[in-house]
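> Could you send the GNAT family N-acetyltransferase prediction when you get a chance?

Sure thing. Input:
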Amino acid sequence: MTDPGQLNSKPCPDGLSIVEAEEKEFRFNRYLYQLVGEPWEWTDKLKQSDAQWQDYAERDTLRTWAAYYRGTIAGYFELEKQADDTVQIAYFGLAPRFIGRGFGGHLLSRALEEAWNWAPCKRVWVHTCTLDHEGALANYQARGMQIYRTETED
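Output:
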């Protein structure tokens, strides 16, 4: 997405709230990564040490938001500021029990809004792959994101 005007926001469902984790705590990020990523085989960071997690999650260029439904964590997203004034949605997703309840569209809308508000920002981007939920790409596109590049790996 290269312009905030491209955003096609989805309204917030009743009972859902999204809060930034302003007090950085790497254990929280690790928990969110495990909770949301387990069904999608997010395993690349699981072997990292506490020090590696702390270096990753507690730096100034990373911000984290958690979605709550009736007090339970329903999902999260992490935004990572890049040196070229772009913002990557580093991680995004819902906890397994909250998939299919209509929360993903609003969570992504909020991620995109927060990315654009993290000035300066000239582009917001995300990586996705065939291991992600089958609706992930459609959600990205429905919110106004466009495919920039595709790659095929063996």
